[in-house]
Amino acid sequence: MALSDELNNDLKSAMKNHDKTRLTIVRMLKSNLMNEKIKLGHDLSDAEAAAVVNREVKQHKDSIAEFKSGGRDDLVKGQEEELKILEDYAPKQMSEADVEKIVNDTIKQLGVSGKGDFGKVMGAVMGKVKGQADGSTVNKLVNKALS
User: Fold this and answer.
1) Contact of 14 with 26, CB cutoff 8 Å
2) pLDDT digits (tens, 9 = 90+) for 96-114
3) Which of 21, 63, 66, 106 has the greatest number of C-beta atoms within 10 Å?
């Protein structure tokens, strides 16, 4: 089922069930997907739609970290509830072991050995795992592999 169809069905369900949090998140996602469609000037591919959802997940994770550091536990709880709903729509993330294997394979393919080639490896790996792994995880694994 396409993401937009799934969002439409969930919107109806959230309205019927009076689930305000899910309703808010579904509406936000639909709005962001429509804005991205207008910005790009064509219907979104699955990868482009996944990128929009991943961007929202990342923003919520950043907000949670900021609220925790600011001692705003009241806001952290709401953001975490929204994040759980967003993760239902996000593409499945790769395990750290899978990402590590891709990093090691990429290093072998490129024939690099030192920290000076960090950018080259990061670019190649991020192209392979686009939308399926967090950049900070890839960064950590590339640093580990090159040291």
Assistant:
1) yes
2) 888 888 888 888 887 777 7
3) 106
